[in-house]
Amino acid sequence: MKLGYFPGCSLLGSARELEESLMLVAKKAGMELTTIPDWNCCGSTAAHNLNHLLSVSLPARILALADKAGMKEVLVPCSACYNRLAMAQYELLENPDLKKEVSEIIEMDFEGTAKLLNVVEGMEKIFGEDSVLKVEKPFEHKVACYYGCLLVRPAKVLKFDRPEDPQSMDRLMKKIGADPIDWPDKVECCGAGLSVSRTDLVAKLSGKILESAVKRGAEAIIVACPMCHSNLDMRRENIEKAAGKKYSIPVLYLTEAIGLALGLSEKELGLHRHLVPVVFPIREKKAEPEKAESAEESAGAVEE
Amino acid sequence: MARIGVFICHCGENIAGTVDVFKVAEAAGKFPGVVHSVEYKYMCSDPGQTMIKDAIKEKKLTGVVVAACSPRMHEPTFRRACAEAGLNPFLCEMANIREHCSWVHEKGEATTQKAIELIRIMVEKVKRNKPLYSIKVPVTKTALVLGGGIAGIQAALDIANAGHQVILVERSPSIGGHMLQLSETFPTLDCSQCILTPRMVEVAQHPKITLYTYSELESLDGFIGNFKARIRRKARGVDEKLCTGCGVCIQKCPQKKIPSEFDAGMGKRTAIYVPCPQSVPNQPVIDREHCTYYIKGKCKICEKFCERKAIRLDQQDEIIEVNVGAVVAATGFDILHSKDFPEYGYGKYPDVIDGLQFERLASASGPTLGAIKRPSDGKEPETVVFIACAGSRDDAKGIPYCSKICCMYTAKHAMLYKHKVHNGKAYVFYMDIRAGGKNYEEFVRRAIEEDGAVYLRGRVSRIYEEDGKLIVKGVDTLLGAQPVEIKADMVVLATAIVANQDAESLAQKLRVSYDPYHFLSEAHPKLRPVETNTAGIFLAGACQAPKDIPEAVAQASGAAAKVAGLFSSSELSREPVIAVVNRLPPPVFSTCTGCFLCEKACPYQAIEREEIKDRKGNVIKVVAKVNPGLCQGCGTCVALCRVKAIDLQGFTNEQVYCELMAL
Ligand SMILES: Cc1cc2nc3c(=O)[nH]c(=O)nc-3n(C[C@H](O)[C@H](O)[C@H](O)COP(=O)(O)OP(=O)(O)OC[C@H]3O[C@@H](n4cnc5c(N)ncnc54)[C@H](O)[C@@H]3O)c2cc1C
Ligand code: SF4
Ligand code: SF4
Ligand code: SF4
Questions:
Q1: Sign of the CA dihedral A74, A80, A86, A91?
Q2: Chain A touched by B343 (CB under 8 Å)
Q3: CB-closest option in A164, A183, A215 to B343
Q4: Which of A120, A150, A165 is a domain's end point?
Q5: Are residues B351 and B247 part of one domain?
Q6: Which of A38, A193, B79, B221 could join A45 via S-S bond, C-beta 3.0 to 4.6 A?
Q7: Nearest CA in chain B to A213
Q8: Does the model's pTM come out above 0.90?
Q9: Which residues span the domain enclosing A231?
Q10: What is the rounded CA–CA span in Å between residue B453 and residue B447?
Q11: Does the CB of B471 have a partner CB in chain A at under 8 Å?
Q12: How far apart are CA A42 and CA A121, in angstroms?
């Protein structure tokens, strides 16, 4: 099996472990990921805040390259890239004039035939019904699946899962033996692109998400998006300061959790790159979440 | 030889102000075949009509062209005048020199010339007109009413009281529809069952009404005045003639935990059941999906205890055929269900309920005997949040329309709750309050001012459970879009009114059109609100659009009046402008080659197949034939027929061709 692949900048930088774990799992499943040749930045948050034409042209070039390479399906693991690419594709297919204008800018024909897959859809393919992968070490933890906003919205464009209460990641987690909790913050905002400019807001919003997950007994937060990961993991200190309280709950990419369940090592999967160490409460019979909390408190946020 | 008379109308200044009518009359008089050409101030007036009648007699006219307004206005007038003078009315045509000429052009030579041309083509047409005769169709004076909600009940009673037979078909075991489930009704707060059950009993006892409950329409064939309906009577498992409705079987049935549809899942029922004690008829039905006997092959406890020996566990569905002259569709509505509201946890949290469930909670005949107790633990909720427009007016849910009744019933719910739980708190989230109706606004004000329901203008984004409470997160747009969080014990969603799931297939069975939301469509949104575009099929109640009881009843009486009008004579006469497939002497019989393209093309299923047989009865040829009762004269088949075997009476290919050539 083969899929086209768009890494985006995050996966080469702050979200290296997402790429590492994704590649390992894909390889194990015999899925070949072919990177779009000569890809460029998707424009991210900056472009569409400043210049509409630029924010469409950048993804358009990526999509045109994918078309040119004959890719039918392209996996875009970063939710922000996925969102930008999907939005641009939608807009261009809806608006022939814009399509013409953009084709001239990128000096390439834009067809937009490649189907975009987000990381959850990618994992559903890699680790789907007829997958050769076997769960070797069940991931027996209570988890809070956190989808963020970019994966499901706007629903009209992305048409992925139920936008208000998505279930696809929960299903994948059940498959590896985890126990996904029912919680209301699955698609709440973590603060996203304000991470640098308004860290205070991010601390507040992400703190709410952590609090809700911990309160409901989750032992890990499972994410799909580099931005969510960095806000919940890298900004942990800010969150704790704002909340006046420590949180030890680790934040894992779904690819990492699946990798662990498939028997891959923590090191290979890049878990050591997280700022919040990936440790789980020791399971006693009926371990209470509060207890687990205090046990890990001293660990805090440690650099690798 | 044709002797055509042309009559040009001034229509006051309407035509004569722009068109030189004298010149037109002079020019028309010179057309070949025209023997008489006059103008007059008002042709439609009595003297005008007399001019036409006299000319027909004196000049022995064989055709008449009236050059005046649109035929939609006065064609019937002039045709009647011709008929009175002994000329076949279909030998009279109108040239529209008003809407098509004087009203849309400046005064001038060209305009006058256009009027002349319009008359010229009509003269060419009329020369080829043939006498036609109205089609008479007999009328079966029995009405079929589909759906036994308040609309169907009202329509059935009105038609029956006008002296006609009615067959009322209801899908569920009892008539009554949603109204039977309601507790009290806005805007008067009278008990729904108390005002409805007398009507239900009247239906059951009316000598002219045949009631088939637990039955559905299988198919409908035929046309206005002459429908043939096949009705499936689902196996009830109980002999209705023997059963006295004593209910012993219901008490003894071991299957007691089936969610009751009537109680909207708030209560339980047995496998052999009546929806509620007031059901009409009160004979039970056996729900085979849940009956132990059908699941495991043994039980038959009901059979053992039934003293009347009325249980028929081996009964089969029965299909009956009835002939009816008119159909009233009154199949009602449904509400949007749980899968559509993950953000509100509807279907996940037992204390998030819909409006119908609240009705059952508040109803004295409901599972809690009218006490407001929340489903999860039976406690009396201290704080209840009502959410209006749940799904309605929301493009994201695919429902842009307003459900119309929920503003009113939400005010009613808040009121009923406050009447029963005096120190309870009732919050209502709303978008706008739509209370357009007699005494409606006053009713809502009462809920707010007298009963203290707190109205918050804003939407709710999410509901989740925390520490045993339902957290309702919303916004108050009147307080500068401030986020609001309410810790509630119960939430009631006024979920959108939607069409029944099978509305589309029903519409297809009836051959009536429906809107994008599967509500059945009326023939004209203003002027023909109870008719459909299929003659003889009428609409009543919420199957056409969301409606409250007064509106549903008014429409039902309207539909009944239409049916009574249709049944007032034993024959229907229809315009003979229909398609005909030609018939020729043997050995050709018809130029129709039997390709039946027309059959596929006809939007009204009017094309039938006719076998042409020799003396021995062998089929020589199969050709198309038009059913004159069904054909609407649209002409689609004529355009498609490759051998020109079909033609439209009154608008033949030849006539239209000659009109064009005259130009
Ligand atoms: C929560 C709630 C509260 C309400 N409160 C009020 C109120 O206080 N005051 C008020 O005026 N209105 C109220 N209404 C509106 C009221 O219920 C409707 O106006 C009324 O029920 C419409 O009647 P109907 O006969 O058109 O449809 P329905 O009541 O839906 O009846 C349709 C009937 O047709 C049957 N049927 C359906 N499909 C078929 C089929 N294919 N073949 C045969 N039978 C079929 C159904 O079983 C049903 O018996 C309320 C509605 C709701 C949802
Ligand atoms: S046979 Fe079915 S309906 Fe009769 S008592 Fe048994 S379970 Fe109930
Ligand atoms: S009637 Fe009121 S609550 Fe119902 S959809 Fe319309 S505005 Fe909303
Ligand atoms: S004229 Fe129209 S309605 Fe009549 S048979 Fe032809 S297609 Fe059908």
A1: negative
A2: yes
A3: A164
A4: A120
A5: no
A6: A193
A7: B466
A8: no
A9: 134-293
A10: 6
A11: yes
A12: 20
